[in-house]
Write a structure and sequence with these properties.
Layout (H helix, E strand, L loop, with lengths): L1 E5 H11 L4 E4 L6 H7 L6 E4 L3 H13 L4 E6 H6 L1 H10 L5 E7 L13 H7 L3 E2 L4 H18 L3 E6 H4 L2 E5 L14 H4 L3 H24 L3 E4 L7 E5 H11 L5 E4 L1 E3 L4 H8 L4 E4 L5 H8 L18 H7 L27 H10 L3 E3 L24 H12 L8 E6 H17 L5 E6 L28 H7 L4 E5 L4 H13 L4 E6 L14 E3 L18 E4 L2 E4 L19 E3 L1
Parallel strand pairs: 2-3, 2-4, 4-5, 5-7, 6-7, 10-11, 10-13, 14-15, 15-16, 16-18, 17-18
Antiparallel strand pairs: 1-8, 6-12, 9-11, 19-22, 20-21
Helix pairs in contact: 1-2, 1-7, 3-5, 11-14, 15-19, 16-17
């Protein structure tokens, strides 16, 4: 049966058909839908883990037990999981283990633009890179075969365009694969003596995989009529190349991006007059070709910054006919903004009003940095706000105390904020951390987390109590505020900043977009009372605008949170 599927849904289907029975992931755009889709198959146990390191270690445990497993994450999540990644490369696997990583060229929803292919080379782990949904299914299934054949975890690399685009796939049947645990201390206990003996095994495996790459069907050469130029490419770049050049020039399409073949590339390069490498971000394929002493061009034409497109490829392949799809229309920019009724808005308004330095974190609340609030001073990675405020405070010998706070979400706090708070308590920071608890993982599309009391399948589960947890690690001052109440937030922030010990404020109000949240009636503006002072505009709510010098509320967006009412000195905002 044929079906139209997103790339991420296709990966999930490939996991299902391959007999995967255990999935542990942390949500991260553009990888999230893989785990959400696979959770719909009753034969597969699927969960959200607190972070990517835990997810990878859990997937390894399932593999060790004899079950095919998967863990999924976005590119920066692989940084978090790098510790187990490099060592699992040494131990190898029992049952097949696949690691899904989705890169975000163009930084549509990410804080950097790193290229995950370097991890495959550094960790000495094979990486497959599908270019559409059909390949996503096929490569997911192949990944398990390679994992078990070569005794290795396998990286399956997606990217935003492949993850979130649709193409036709052919569905197949599930194959059950059930192994058993076999005790093997020399293989799985990585103390130095055993690890030293495993390293040569890894190097031999890489050589064997390179030999496989020479004849693998997923590394293919597509003929072209004009051999004045040949192109080596992969992933979504392959789609752009084919749309631009069609069958005019020979194209080598790499489905296994590490290890890459050597002789196959040499033969292809020898068959064309000029070799061009088209790839997104870093010159990974290009460096491999240059290591082989093969003359080629690549990054001098195709930047390592931002994603490619048909237009960019057509422009740089000057000799190629521009037959690709060209987008001439100018699309108006749509800057990110907190939703109407977002519980974070009132808190950030209060932080800005008090002129505080705010160390931010990764989540919807990162948008506190956007005008007109502009209330966030730094954002690095998950958990960095809590660790960072400790260093900020200690390095200035208390000079910043009373003027600096850290802001972190409930899901991100569970991901990697807890250890930073432990450090604050242990080393006695005089700093304030604000946990913005919106009762969901909002940024990636409303996934559950350990504080919500609901698991990935939607079933009730253990709910972590943030107040008790903070006190358990040594924070004595813990209080809860409603971010819709500006006066309450203002008092709490001032009191905790004045305290001579570390403290935690939990700003608790569920995400306004949750289906179970009941809203008040939208507000309306009494134009006779409105003087056009624009005080209500200071919070940057998308439901409020100025029309003909007066405030206007969009009733289709307004959820009646009342934050703007508290700013209006003229009582011009009323419930309808």
């Amino acid at each position: 049966m044929k079906q139209l599927m997103l790339g991420n849904e296709a990966v999930a289907r490939g996991l299902y058909e391959a007999g995967c029975s255990f999935v542990s992931s942390y949500p991260g755009t553009p990888s999230t839908e893989i785990t959400e889709a696979v959770a719909k198959y009753p034969e597969v146990y699927a969960e959200w883990a607190p972070n990517e390191k835990v997810a990878m270690e859990a997937a390894f445990g399932a593999s060790l037990a004899g079950r095919r497993s998967f863990c999924g994450m976005k590119h920066v999540g692989l940084n978090v999981a790098a510790d187990p990644l490099f060592t699992i490369s040494y131990t190898g696997v029992n049952a097949g283990m696949v690691i899904g990583v989705a890169d975000d060229a163009g930084m549509h929803s990410s804080q950097n633009e790193q290229d995950s292919r370097h991890y495959a080379r550094a960790a000495k782990i094979p990486m497959l890179e599908p270019a559409d949904s059909a390949e996503a299914i096929a490569f997911a299934k192949l990944a398990y075969e390679l994992s078990e054949k070569f005794d290795t975890p396998v990286l399956l690399k997606m990217c935003t365009r492949v993850s979130h685009s649709q193409s036709v796939v052919e569905l197949g049947a599930r194959v059950e694969v059930l192994g058993e645990y076999k005790k093997d201390i020399a293989k799985y206990v990585m103390m130095p003596g055993n690890a030293k003996r495993r390293h040569p095994v890894v190097e031999a495996r890489t050589r064997a995989l390179a030999e496989y790459a020479e004849t693998a069907d997923i590394n293919r050469v597509e003929p072209g009529a004009d051999k004045c130029m040949g192109i080596i490419t992969s992933s979504t770049s392959y789609q752009y190349v084919k749309e631009v050049v069609g069958d005019t020039y020979p194209v080598m399409k790499l489905g296994m991006i590490w290890p890459m073949p050597e002789q196959k590339i040499r033969d292809f390069a020898a068959s064309v007059e000029k070799l061009v490498i088209v790839e997104e971000l870093d010159g990974f394929i290009e460096c491999h070709c240059r290591d082989l002493q093969i003359p080629c061009v690549g990054k001098e034409y195709f930047s390592c910054i931002d994603e490619l497109s048909q237009n960019k490829v057509a422009q740089q392949l000057a000799a190629a006919p521009q037959t690709g799809v060209k987008l001439d229309a100018q699309i108006p920019p749509r800057p990110p903004v907190m939703c109407a009724g977002c519980p974070h808005r009132g808190l950030f308004y209060t932080l800005k009003k008090n002129k505080l330095t705010v160390l931010g974190d990764i989540g919807c609340y990162t948008l506190g940095a956007v005008a007109p609030l502009a209330a966030v001073d730094s954002v690095i990675c998950m958990g960095a706000s809590v660790s960072g405020i400790h260093g900020f405070s200690k390095s200035q010998n208390g000079a910043a105390d009373g003027q600096t706070v850290a802001v972190i979400g409930d899901s991100t706090f569970m991901h990697s904020g807890i250890t930073g708070l432990v450090n604050m308590a242990y080393n006695e920071s005089n700093a304030t951390v604000i946990i913005v608890d919106n009762s969901i993982t909002g940024m990636t599309g409303h996934q559950q987390n350990p504080t919500t009391g609901v698991n990935l399948k939607g079933d009730p589960c253990t709910k972590i109590d943030l107040e008790t947890l903070c006190r358990a690690v040594g924070i004595r001052r813990v209080r809860v505020v409603d971010p819709y109440d500006l006066a309450q937030c203002d008092v709490a922030i001032k009191e905790e900043l004045a305290a001579q010990e570390p403290s935690v404020i939990i700003s608790r109000r569920p995400c306004a977009l949750l289906k179970n949240v009941k809203h008040k009636a939208p507000l309306a503006v009494d134009s006779d009372k409105c003087v056009g002072c624009k005080a209500c505009m200071k919070i940057g709510c998308p439901a409020i605008s100025i029309v003909d010098g007066k405030a206007k509320v969009d009733a289709t967006q307004c959820v009646g949170c009342g934050v703007c009412q508290q700013l209006c000195k003229f009582d011009a905002l009323k419930e309808v």
